[in-house]
Amino acid sequence: MNVIECWMEHPVRKLDTTFTYRTEKHVECGCRVRVALRNTTVIGFVESVQETDETPEELNARLGYTVREVDDVLDETPLITPELHDLALWMRHETVSTAIACFQAMLPAKIKPATHSLHAVKEKYVRLSDAETGLTPKQLEAYLFVRNESEVRYSELRRKYPGQAKALVDKGALTVFEKEKAAESTEHAALKEPYALNTYQQAVMDEIEQSDDPVYILRGVTGSGKTEVYFHLARKALDAGRQVLLLVPEIALTPQMIRRVYERFGEDLAVYHSGLNPQEKYEQYRKVYEQKAKIVVGTRSAVFLPFRDLGLIVMDEEHDSSYKQDSQPAYHCRDVAIWRGKRHHARVILGSATPSLESYARGIRKVYHPLRLDHRVNDAMPKVTVVDMKAAVQRGESFILSQELQGKMADVLNRGKQVILLLNRRGYHARLACRSCQEVLLCPHCDLAMSWHRESRRMKCHTCGTEIYVPKICPKCGSDKGFATYGFGTQKLEEEVLARFPGRKVLRMDADTTARKNGHEKILTAFGNHEADILLGTQMIAKGLDYPDVTLVGVLNGDDGLARTDFRSCETTFDLLMQAAGRSGRADESGEVVFQVYHPDHYAVQSAASQDYDTFFRNEMHFRHAGQYPPYTYITALTFSGMDASRTERAAMEFKQALAGDFKVIGVLSLLRISDRSRFRILLKGKDPEAMREAVRRVIDAGIDSRVSLRVDVNPMTLD
Ligand code: ADP
Ligand code: ZN
Ligand code: ZN
């Protein structure tokens, strides 16, 4: 008989302990079982298995209670590797969350494979038809391409021959047919030869190879060829028969990166990001588990894939906030990557043009091995112009597009080049305010301003998703004088651009236009194919994209972020401006950048304008030191939320009183209400994060009001 210990599927803190069951069946650590818990049946996750010769009665007698029998064993083999098991328990400790939440964070939602594919995704292909038709030379070229390949994905043909693909189908020269979407690995990309590294890249490469250090922080200006260095390191790891993990911050970034990896490494690739459906995720998970995937490109959760032998982990844009998970367990992907790197004896490379202050400070203290790439491959840094919008508006210019930016846009467009405009606010108008009492229209469920969306003619809350029609009378003062509009969003910007540049093609990329599957990819591919002159969008277009023909980038309301009260708001503003500037002039022609701002003299704006990380770092470290913020101190944030405000506040107060240890306790702070939930926060600040963890865990174990939920965030990214 087996005696097993298992975790329960519910991630509630009261159940964060293992329960004992018995079974005659074969079962291993890391398998799921169905068991009875009180009056219901739940799924358990097996922590340990012990064989015994005892009878059930002897077992009960020894333990002093009745051990129930497992209803069913759900998996024949474990879902996770022993390494991932250890990782989950480490994460539970580090993030002060429940063990089951950590296991759940690691596993693809539908870990069970569907026995037969219920929802096979179909894709369009083309092949030659029998019809002989008169073709233009260009069409003939496309026709011959299809003949060579015998069948081609229609999307690929359109990408290669945008002007011919549809015409060939219309003429009947090609037939369209549908086929089950092939696993990504069977796509054959024309392999590209690696570039020979330049001397700077080679020096970085040599330094890494000659070092035994586990973690590296590579600070390289945008366009300095960091990605190329990653690829050379990856090649070496692959040649040594090991696996490679390439982490990227956001799904918007992945299409370009994926294409680059395909072109270099061919079919050994797995791709893993939140845009995959559960079945696709499961397939990629298996591919890695079975070592069929040698190199993985993925976002945050890819760091949990069941690698067997990792030789290299690269984390590109390591400063990006999407590497931190909001919900429990609030882990940072970087910490997990470093843990796994150590376990596999794999190097971890953290790369960024604007490293997080924490990582860069660790580089200075040689905790991470510091590396630099200070020269762009094309040796031309973008020329940045800062436009003071306060002055521009006073001169009577548009508050959306300054004269300066319009002039430069006209210039670039006339030369047949492309423009990117970045505005960190979607919707049409930022907000509506009552003409009588001046109160801004707030979300009925959150204490936050709503944005007006013209397409739906409704107000939207970007935090909880609530949509309402603009009310006839003001909910605050009852006036019926209507509302005045303030600010502008991407929709309004699009309209303005079209009005100023009639006949130009504009693509808009924001959460509204990318909601559908592959929405990002479609927009980015279209822009890459020159189907538009101007790409405008929210910060999702600021990072990582590499378009050779973009020679002008405009950032609108570039210093909006400074208005936030968060300790990291200067850093994120600086990052955004630097990254945006990095999109311009990446190929042969040098690029221009315009920052439209209201605080032109702020050091975050100034340092970004001169692309000067060092100056920004010095200034910002000074500020962090004065305020005792990271990296000078560690913070743990405890957020209590609940439907009943006073109950929630009381729970936070009681928690605070019970906390004791070698750290400061700040709060209880009242936060903005979100989705009808009142929120309160306690901050712990100190030099020893372990002391905070222990104290928090102790108070949690003593129990908190069951109607109040607590979110623990060790090393939070933001505090607003
Ligand atoms: P980063 O990741 O630092 O922003 P990339 O690796 O994307 O920079 O390189 C910027 C551009 O320079 C890319 O278009 C890339 O193909 C090109 N590039 C990189 N390294 C070399 C090299 N050694 N020789 C020629 N071109 C290069
Ligand atoms: Zn009013
Ligand atoms: Zn809301």
Question: Could you explain the architecture of this structure?
Answer:
The chain has 720 residues and is an alpha/beta fold. It has 6 domains: 2-106, 3-Layer(aba) Sandwich (GIY-YIG endonuclease); 122-180; 199-373, Rossmann fold (3-Layer(aba) Sandwich), CATH 3.40.50.300; 383-427 and 489-624, Rossmann fold, CATH 3.40.50.300; 429-487, no CATH class; 634-714, 2-Layer Sandwich (Alpha-Beta Plaits), CATH 3.30.70.600. 32% of the residues lie in helices and 24% in strands. The chain has 21 helices and 31 strands. The chain has a 7-stranded parallel sheet with strand order 12-13-11-14-15-10-16, sandwiched between helices. A 6-stranded mixed sheet has the order 5-2-1-4-3-6, with no helix packed on it. Strands 17-27-26-18-25-24 form a 6-stranded parallel sheet, with helices on both faces. It starts with a strand and ends in a 6-residue tail after the last strand. Adenosine-5'-diphosphate binds at residues 195, 197-198, 201, 220, 222-228, 377, 546, 586. Residues 434, 436-437, 439, 474, 476-477, 479 line the site of one zinc ion.
List keywords for this structure.
single chain; 720 residues; alpha/beta; GIY-YIG endonuclease; Rossmann fold; 6 domains; seven-stranded parallel β-sheet; six-stranded mixed β-sheet; binds adenosine-5'-diphosphate; binds zinc ion
